[in-house]
From TrEMBL, chain A:
Membrane topology recorded in Swiss-Prot or TrEMBL: Single-pass membrane protein
Transmembrane residue ranges: 16-36
Classification via Gene3D superfamilies: Cytochrome b-c1 complex subunit 9
Cited Pfam families: UCR_UQCRX_QCR9
Location of the protein in the cell: Mitochondrion inner membrane
Protein name as it appears in the record: Complex III subunit 9
Keywords for the protein's UniProt record, in alphabetical order: Electron transport, Membrane, Mitochondrion, Mitochondrion inner membrane, Respiratory chain, Transmembrane, Transmembrane helix, Transport
Similarity section: Belongs to the UQCR10/QCR9 family.
TrEMBL record, chain B:
GO MF annotation list: heme binding; metal ion binding; quinol-cytochrome-c reductase activity
Organism lineage string: Eukaryota, Fungi, Dikarya, Ascomycota, Pezizomycotina
Residues binding heme c, per UniProt: 109, 112-113, 233
Localization annotation: Mitochondrion inner membrane
Superkingdom classification of source: Eukaryota
Tagged with keyword Glycoprotein: no
Entry's Gene Ontology cellular component terms: mitochondrial inner membrane
Region annotated Disordered, chain positions: 15-36
Organism of derivation: Ascodesmis nigricans
Record-stated family: Belongs to the cytochrome c family.
Entry keyword Transmembrane helix: yes
One of the protein's GO biological processes: mitochondrial electron transport, ubiquinol to cytochrome c
Domain Cytochrome c, residue spans: 96-249
The name this protein goes by in its record: quinol--cytochrome-c reductase
Gene3D superfamilies: Cytochrome c-like domain (1.10.760.10), Cytochrome c1, transmembrane anchor, C-terminal (1.20.5.100)
Amino acid sequence: MTITNSIYNVLFRRNYVFVGAVFASAFAFEMGFDTISDKVWDNLNKGRQWKDIRHRYVEEE
Amino acid sequence: MLARTALRASTLRSISRQTTKRAASSSSNASKEQSPRMLNIAGTAATVAAVGSVSLYYQQYGFGNTVYAGTPAEEGLHAPHFPWVHNEWLKTFDHAALRRGFQVYREVCASCHSLSRVPWRALVGVTHTVDEVKAMAEEHEYDDEPNDVGDIEKRAGKLSDPIPSPYANDNAARAANQGALPPDLSLIVKGRHGGCDYIFALLTGYPDEPPAGTKLPEGLNFNPYFPGTGIAMARVLYDGVVEYEDGTPATTSQMAKDVVEFLNWAAEPEHDQRKKMGMKVLAVTSVLLALSIWVKRYKWAPLKTRKIVYTPPKH
């Protein structure tokens, strides 16, 4: 009970904290999800995308 | 619905039972004794007529077959399905193939076909680096803004210019090709039935010589995949027509595959991003779907498992 109570006191008691937590967690989730799914995508398409073949053609200055 | 069907079935059965019963009971009457036999003959004749007409229809047309007004030659041979890797759900275009395909377009197709919806800048970061595309654009001349006296001068191409067309307009293109208009290739993959399969089959499907008995008008070439089989474009892809910079052997089918993939990119430049976003959307929505199913079951559990008991008052 103490855990639920403390969660309630910290997060849900004041609305501005609650809304802020929702926005912050959405932001954090989006960043994490995008990073992971980009990695999965690049792994599925290894060698097929432009960034995989770019090094052959770009001339470094 | 089920109840009604059951009701009707039982009624039908009872009617037939009544008829037989009545026929059996009135066996003394000679004229009425004929009627079951007549009924049998009529029923048999009707069954034979029904079966016969259905089998005649089947023999004529078959079931589930589409009837085409055109002959197979007018329809064109339907292209087989090729295993395009970029058509799989989670696969992007092979950008090395796009680069080779653009080379094929530039060295072979571009002498007749325009690619007017694709600007040079679209190639940047897809098949070529910025510097390469800038160099290619500068090889061509475009109309500049009117100068101080209103004359239009020429300037070198920029990234924002479209890839130049081989002819000034459609009439010039027709005049140069014996009246046949080479279609613009920007959206050709979307604009033809069969898409990639059709174009690949068309490019690789020219026989060495047309089959015996084919009569084609002057200037047309035989291709079984082209509707009407007479196509103004001759076979253009022969082994080794282009030389790939990455060392891939430039066979006819390799070039056709590369250029078709490039044309698919030209028609759907958003393809890679769309599939990546689709993967993300399906991942998130499948979790949300599972969550909503769980919430529904959680909320409904008390309603589904409760038992309402009526206890009649005792007197």
